[in-house]
């Protein structure tokens, strides 16, 4: 489960809540720490600004604006979405090029129809993503509600 901490900023009438998360830089935490170019770019003063983003999430909890929560999305959903977005257009284009070359078409025709199939795969991808069931599977949900304890600075975690 991919998790992120956030603050509830609004309650939606449809049962969802809007959660604001702080975008964290992941540089310095992976195995390619010393050889990564992103680490050097993030050292620039203009890149060190942490930005906040707001996202609508599903919630089974009774929440109020200002509650600290942990939201999450299943890893398999993230992998499926990434494969679909990155792999489907590439497979479409390569398969079309291979098929046309196998049929003996000229290289210019193969390249042209390769790009046509690439753009058709983007259209197909858009249709797949716009399906309600697929969108619901990509929607994150509230996993835990963090309740602050008055005497200590660290929050207590509660869950269902």
Automatic annotation (TrEMBL):
- InterPro entries in the record, alphabetically? RseC, SigmaE_reg_RseC_MucC
Q: Does the keyword Transmembrane helix apply?
A: yes
Q: Does the keyword Calcium apply?
A: no
Q: Name one Pfam family in it.
A: RseC_MucC
UniProt entry keywords in alphabetical sequence: Membrane, Transmembrane, Transmembrane helix
Which residue spans traverse the membrane?
83-102, 108-125
Mind telling me what this protein is named? SoxR reducing system RseC family protein
Tell me which species this is from: Spartinivicinus marinus
